[in-house]
User: What shape does this take?
Amino acid sequence: MEVITIEFRIQLVGLIVVLCYIIFNIDDVIWEIVHLIKKRRVNSEADRVSMESLEAIPSKLLAVIVAAWNEDSVLEPMIENMLASAHYPESMYYVFLGVYPNDDATVAVAKRLERKYKNVHMVMNVHAGPTCKADNINNVIAFIKQFEADRGWRFSAIIVHDSEDVVHPYEFKVANFLLERYDALQFPVFPLQRMPTLKNFFRGMTSGTYADEFAQNHFRIMGMRDTMSAIVPSAGTGFVISHRILDEYENEPLFPEDNLTEDYKLSLILAEKGFHVHYVLEKVQRLLDNSTVKWDYIATRSIFPATFKKAVQQKTRWIYGITMQSITFTDIFKPSELSFAGRYTLYRDWKAKIVNLLVLPGYLVFIYFIVSSFVSLPIMYPVSTFAWRACILLTTIMIFHQITRVIAIQHIYGFRSVVFACLLPPLMPIRLIWGNIINLSATLCAWKQLFFGTQKGNKKKKVAWHKTNHEFLEEHVLHRYHRNVGDVLLEKGYLDSDTLQVILDQSLKEGCRLGDALLQSGAVTEEQLMTAVASSQHRLFVKNISSFTCDIADDFDKEWLEQSLVYPLLKTKNGYVMAETNFTQADVYENLEFEGIEIHTVYTTKTKILDSIHGTDTVKGYLNIDFITELLMQDKITWQQAVLALDNQDFTPDILGYMGLKPKEATIQMLPGIEAGAAFAAAQEAAATTD
Assistant: This one.
């Protein structure tokens, strides 16, 4: 009887590993090829979001939810950074902080934020914490519904964020635009990491693996899912849910409370119900400190674990929640409305609990196969045999995966990150292997939890919140994610980077303001400049002063208005809303404020102010300003909301309803003698003539 040698057994095990790896990975290669073919058939640029289109529609009410448990160290800087950087009217988005009665430190922070900002509200959970994250969010949603009922408002959508997120300045603006077409949106999530160096290489190893994986998943794979009309899963943050979905869940909780990955499970449920979750992969230009222009993706930046233990803990929750709670093998084939692409993505997510176990053995086989081909070692498989061809295919798949990862990392983090992630050392980079070790460990823990955990046999049991502690970024790092005038001018396409740099150098040389230099050079118009200035300073820009048809200008001396370059738009309870320019002196309202008159300001152009003072601006609005003023005096809308409604009244006769601000009992009130339809048509015709 022939003896089975150890070498034969090793070869057999190696072949089994190779075949399993190929079986579970070859489909990814095919999927990539099919995606490339389909992408070439459609004009993807047609769906790109332009800055012009973002400005074309008025702002709608948005609700931002941040669920917090033991987040006192990061919650305040996160919220303050979001409020300071968001390019969206502050009166059109409200932030709701979900906290627990037994989390005194976080409650204290939430109360402080609520007192400081009018658009921030603390929502106390009815249960002691920690419950699950889904329960926290559902509790906040219930509060939002009551908030809407009390005010007669309607939020266009809710946006879910984590308490350690750096929210992109244009996220709300893009969401406001895309909600016209989609039921839900998922923005990319890219981990924050310090610039990699040899000095911090090992210290940033674990967090770096998150950057590599999210770059590949959120730059390539999520985009492929969207292009192929497959299931786009929620990432748990940067997730936008339209009110149309909330209406579907009128009397039941939105997020499932029996799942560790409630966000992923919800996206599956929405897909089965026929709701379309769109993946948003958009980018804008910005000017760096070194005068170079960089493409910046409109994405959520988040801080991820930096230690092996915390990373394994977090990924265990992900793997268990997605592959063992949310998806069963039968779910892939059961009767449903899902397309083939949708079913495939379910399979792709499900197989992670198997693939993660094969990666490291696959690497060992791969390393030995390559080394034995060049070094004097026993040949693993003879040339041209089936096993040899299988190893060649395995090698090809691994190289393919590495190439796609290199492309993704280079797009998101730059070439230096590529070197540290994929090329150090060559062939078998340390960071890649470390990431696979983390995934292997987390998968083993998930399997252990499946067979021996507390959730076994009780799928309906509510799960506790397994959270990961975080630290927030320093102020100087956060400043990189804010926008200045130059950034806005580039992003809006008003001028190119070369022209901007020339004028910047000129303004520094002559000691004048950038705005003056831009106007003198003729590079931008006055309106373009003031729009950019207003955006960078997070102030409203009024484009249609003539829409504010009222007599309050008579309250002021005409000569003073002209000299001061200001114009009154609205009367409030305690003062006025005044239009000014960037060239208006800061102390112009000193005497008025001394008399106790409250002044709110918006931006416009010098030309529009002078035309309004002299009565030469003849385009008028059609909404009854007294009606808007009454709502303002009754505190049913804010002064900013009143300004936005009047400035955008030519968009639709029911502008208050469109923005989500119309009280239930209110009806459109036009100027006397003007019907809504005629007024709207006239406004549209006037706008077209002006253009």
About this structure: The chain is about 50% helix and 10% strand. The longest helix spans residues 6-41. Residues 483-534 form one domain.
